[in-house]
């Protein structure tokens, strides 16, 4: 991948939703190394799979010698980005944001190279400049460049204004100016001339380009990556049991791996292009041969392995493969006590039980395989529940023979959801 065809490569991989002045940006990349940035507001203690594409694009730029800057929104997260949100975000306290900033910063440091010389990645926090800012100076020097008419007509704002039950607060309305100011300052301090973000950030990125052009008479660029949704319209990375986080303590590597194994077959080859660094020619070859000996399953496994390795590392991937081998291939016929200890250590969902469990319904709720006793009961009667891989058709009372080596019981819902009860 050369500097000249980087933008074309991003297009070919489905990684561009919007881009400004494509030809000019391509010429700039051909002749110069640039600095680019992407912002992440710490509104949770972890990033999730929806944040992966911007990080992958930053990494692709860095691999070609460009300097990626990650901006943590320590200040902007106190305001909340209204972009395409149905209602006002919950306000978070500074203490939480400080804790989440440290955790997210640590996560990001695993994706980019922060020690490779001239194009080492840089991690900044916009709280550094916003905590010193004077509101009157900001309104005079920055606010004057923004037309209320233009801001109101942005689709993300119009959507909220048209809903009288929600509307939009001035606090959220001002977010657009704050992100624009970030781009302006980074352009001044670090010569950043490209901002990337999700497709929902197009309005905020455009505002930054407008401000830089008006104040500094410079041409800068914006690039957004697609926002992915599943066939049911649910945002990619959300499942019936919650968000798929990048933090191994919030989503185990095993569950993370299974998320990718459970994607729809029609998405496999697009996701290989978007989320992995496998060459396009190799992916094309895979797609052409997908129906030969059912290679499509092999390709989905490749996708799951590549992304799990990228996020959690080789050691955690090997652990996931051990769990998968036992649950889907070996079964429990020849399992040993050390195997079960290893499964627990490797990260299969597990619960420790110190009191007597009343019945199977209670166990399913405790194991988070059911949300209520009623749902658990329905699952049992639907023949969806197994104990140690054996189907259970009635509300079972646990016996000593259910405890493998007197210590473990594998509780399963269907073929893909498991929990190890540790007695």
Automatic annotation (TrEMBL):
Locus of motif 'KMSKS' region: 235-239
Entry EC no(s): 6.1.1.1
Residues the entry annotates as binding ATP: 238
Subcellular location: Cytoplasm
GO biological process: tyrosyl-tRNA aminoacylation
Catalyzed chemical reaction(s): tRNA(Tyr) + L-tyrosine + ATP = L-tyrosyl-tRNA(Tyr) + AMP + diphosphate + H(+)
Broadest EC class assigned to this enzyme: ligase
Keyword ATP-binding: yes
Sequence motif 'HIGH' region, location on chain: 42-51
Binding sites annotated in the UniProt record for L-tyrosine: 37, 175, 179
Keywords: Aminoacyl-tRNA synthetase, ATP-binding, Cytoplasm, Ligase, Nucleotide-binding, Protein biosynthesis, RNA-binding
GO CC terms in record: cytosol
UniProt-listed InterPro entries: aa-tRNA-synth_Ic, Rossmann-like_a/b/a_fold, S4_RNA-bd_sf, SYY-like_C, Tyr-tRNA-ligase, Tyr-tRNA-ligase_bac-type, Tyr-tRNA-ligase_bac_1
SUPFAM superfamilies registered for this protein in UniProt: Alpha-L RNA-binding motif, Nucleotidylyl transferase
Molecular function, one GO term: RNA binding
Family recorded in the similarity comment: Belongs to the class-I aminoacyl-tRNA synthetase family. TyrS type 1 subfamily.
Subunit organization: Homodimer.
Name of protein: Tyrosine--tRNA ligase
Species annotation: Buchnera aphidicola subsp. Diuraphis noxia
